[in-house]
Amino acid sequence: MTDSKYSLDEIRIRLNDLDDQLLQLLSERRSLSIEVAKSKIETSKPVRDAKREQQLLVKLINNGKNKYDLDAQYITKLFHTVIEDSVLLQQSYLQNLANPTQSRKPIARVAFLGSRGSYSHLASREYFSRKNTELVELNCDHFREVTKTVESGHADFGMLPIENTSSGSINEVYDLLQHTTLYIVGEITLPIEHCILANSDIHIEDIKTLYSHPQPHQQCSEFLSRLKGVTLESCASTADAMQKVKEIDRADVAAIGNASSGKLYGLQPVKNNIANQTENHTRFILVARKPVEVSSQIPAKTTLIMSTSQAAGSLVETLLVLQRYGINMTKLENRPIMGNPWEEMFYVDLEAHVESSEMQQAIHELIKITQHLKVLGCYPSENVKPTQVQLT
């Protein structure tokens, strides 16, 4: 047995001191990130510099290995988070300059699906935590109410889930986008960590009724298929499901939701990680009555909605236009046009700034060959792709 030269209390005090030092250094690094953004305004350089990021990571990996006996995976994982934070800070700073009227608003009214603790609520808080904006939270019973609340002016923004890595596209939201006058002004991807929540530490075998939104039921279908004699009940949101379980207060009912949200309702996790996919994420879009200006220095996305003729090859023709101008498509979704049998509306997400020359030329050509085309929004891409380096 090896004796430590420090007592456990002494070790914990030292760890606390080191943690405080780390927090101070991270704060200083954040401040310098803003200074970097200011310097890029003068030089018009883009926020991301892949070569610089790669050089930085390689240097950190080598120093960590040779000087401090730290492995490459640990350093890479840590600094991916640091770089992502720096990029998002710089983007937010540049966006505030591009939208001065919006940035001066200290309060934002945000409509979302469900009560406190729903995934849409968590996404709203996560998104605006980077904006230093105080939220007025307006919970809604369904997606249509979210859009109507924003369209009427009772809310400044609406947070809507659009797709999930496990269950796919959320068709109800896509259908709403056909008819709304709102614009997409932002996005955020949230990790979804489903678990079984109950009022007490019950056994899974005792559950007779399980409440949740239909999406989690679908995303956890493999786990749920193994449960015997359990009735699945649908609620407007995961938060409403948790609230329902709290009110019923029986040992044979439970909900599917997020563990941290469950704490808001006095529920405890009974079974964690029940989703079909380990990497379960939902992409949310933020909608508003007016579009935002996006700095040309920021990675941007543009979302189009369009319909084509019924002639063979019509859709392919539109995609060839995008290919010709080197515009990368990240999403293509089709939905039926209500009232027009057999006709479809296409939603296209593009990695491009709507004001770029390539995008403007592409739109000009697309208008000629489509029956209907509308730009639903150009907005900053909040998904910061990790810097790629070769680990040895």
TrEMBL record:
<dbReference type="InterPro" id="IPR002912">
    <property type="entry name" value="ACT_dom"/>
</dbReference>
<dbReference type="InterPro" id="IPR010952">
    <property type="entry name" value="CM_P_1"/>
</dbReference>
<keyword id="KW-0413">Isomerase</keyword>
<feature type="coiled-coil region">
    <location>
        <begin position="8"/>
        <end position="35"/>
    </location>
</feature>
<dbReference type="InterPro" id="IPR002701">
    <property type="entry name" value="CM_II_prokaryot"/>
</dbReference>
<dbReference type="InterPro" id="IPR036263">
    <property type="entry name" value="Chorismate_II_sf"/>
</dbReference>
<feature type="domain" description="Chorismate mutase">
    <location>
        <begin position="2"/>
        <end position="94"/>
    </location>
</feature>
<keyword id="KW-0057">Aromatic amino acid biosynthesis</keyword>
<keyword id="KW-0456">Lyase</keyword>
<keyword id="KW-0511">Multifunctional enzyme</keyword>
<dbReference type="InterPro" id="IPR008242">
    <property type="entry name" value="Chor_mutase/pphenate_deHydtase"/>
</dbReference>
<dbReference type="InterPro" id="IPR001086">
    <property type="entry name" value="Preph_deHydtase"/>
</dbReference>
<comment type="pathway">
    <text>Metabolic intermediate biosynthesis; prephenate biosynthesis; prephenate from chorismate: step 1/1.</text>
</comment>
<dbReference type="Pfam" id="PF01817">
    <property type="entry name" value="CM_2"/>
</dbReference>
<keyword id="KW-0028">Amino-acid biosynthesis</keyword>
<feature type="domain" description="Prephenate dehydratase">
    <location>
        <begin position="109"/>
        <end position="289"/>
    </location>
</feature>
<comment type="pathway">
    <text>Amino-acid biosynthesis; L-phenylalanine biosynthesis; phenylpyruvate from prephenate: step 1/1.</text>
</comment>
<protein>
    <recommendedName>
        <fullName>Bifunctional chorismate mutase/prephenate dehydratase</fullName>
        <ecNumber>4.2.1.51</ecNumber>
        <ecNumber>5.4.99.5</ecNumber>
    </recommendedName>
</protein>
<dbReference type="GO" id="GO:0004664">
    <property type="term" value="F:prephenate dehydratase activity"/>
</dbReference>
<keyword id="KW-0175">Coiled coil</keyword>
<dbReference type="InterPro" id="IPR036979">
    <property type="entry name" value="CM_dom_sf"/>
</dbReference>
<keyword id="KW-0584">Phenylalanine biosynthesis</keyword>
<dbReference type="InterPro" id="IPR018528">
    <property type="entry name" value="Preph_deHydtase_CS"/>
</dbReference>
<dbReference type="Pfam" id="PF00800">
    <property type="entry name" value="PDT"/>
</dbReference>
<keyword id="KW-0963">Cytoplasm</keyword>
<comment type="function">
    <text>Catalyzes the Claisen rearrangement of chorismate to prephenate and the decarboxylation/dehydration of prephenate to phenylpyruvate.</text>
</comment>
<feature type="domain" description="ACT">
    <location>
        <begin position="303"/>
        <end position="380"/>
    </location>
</feature>
<dbReference type="InterPro" id="IPR045865">
    <property type="entry name" value="ACT-like_dom_sf"/>
</dbReference>
